[in-house]
Write a structure and sequence with these properties.
about 190 residues; alpha/beta; five-stranded mixed sheet; 5 strands
Amino acid sequence: MLLIVAFVIAAVSAYPVTSALVLVLAAAAALTLHLARTGRLRLPAPLAGAAGAGAGRDFTHTIAAYQAMDYTEFEHAMADLARRDPAVRRTDVSGGKNDRGLDVLVHLHSGDRYLLQCKRWKGRVGSEEVMKINGTYRDIHHCVGAAIITTSAFTADAERTNALLPKALRLIDGRGLARWASGGRPPWA
């Protein structure tokens, strides 16, 4: 260890400009990595032919593009969409079996948490989904609010059920999603 410290001191003494440049680049790389991990910096998508889900696929912000995604890609797309809002500190994607209605957890800079349930469906979302999310977002996930986002629409029964809740969920259908993706108001605003 002492040998390494002596080597670093000798290198800095012999090459002060190069050492300063290396230090600045290392600090920039560490900052970039930190911002990417916390969701405050969105790195470019993988290049075509790269490994991974959706590699090389260019999705635009249209409902047809969202419908072309598999459910995991759709959840990640909703997390990316949420991160565009300056009020968002970070997002966590945790969908899958036994997720208790949580697909994307949005952490706001205010300290509040917001739940997103993502439904990339062709059929309408019914009242059972509204009841499920209403039953979990506060007590299990400790969120201040929740939204169900679908590429399709909600049944009239789902909308009636939501209207009866003491604190209604945000129901975002395909049209609402297109508005949000085009720069509209996010669910927590």
